[in-house]
Structures are given as structure tokens and as C-alpha cells.
Amino acid sequence: MKRFQSTTDDAAEPHDGKVVAARSKEFVMLTGGLLWLIGIPIPVILLLWFFFLRGR
């Protein structure tokens, strides 16, 4: 299964292993960052709102 689409013709320029590895690492970092945003700040903001700002 091909994960990333090439902007050029695959027959004209073969992929460099370093480029594919860098893209894969960026994808993993982006996924981890999004999961962190969902898991850490949002529950903290909701708890702060629930305990301190809900009654105003």
C-alpha cells in the first residue's frame, strides 16, 4: 500500500529512502501532536471551566 502520493512520475525519479523516512517521521510527529492536544489541554480546560467558571 502506498502511503504518500508522489508529485512527480515514479518512473522518472525513484524515491530516496531518506525522503520517505522523513515524511513518515513527520506524519508520526503530527499524529502524536494531535493526540497530545486532544489528551492534555482539552480535559484541563474543561476541568478549569467546570470548577471555576461554571457558576458565573
How would you describe this structure to a colleague?
By secondary structure, the chain is mainly α. It has a domain at 17-53. 64% of the residues lie in helices and 0% in strands. The chain has two helices and no strands. The longest helix has 23 residues, at 17-39. The radius of gyration is 20 Å and the shape is rod-shaped. It starts with 16 loop residues before the first helix and ends with a helix.
Task: Show unreliable segments.
Answer: none
Listing every helix as H and every strand as E from the N terminus to the C terminus, the arrangement reads HH
- Mean of all residue-level pLDDT scores: 78
What share of residues are in beta strands? Answer: under 5%
Largest sheet: none
Class by alpha and beta content: mainly alpha
- Computed CA radius of gyration, to the nearest angstrom: 20 Å
Tell me the total number of β-strands: 0
Number of helices: 2
Give the % helix: 55-70%
Identify the quaternary structure here: single chain
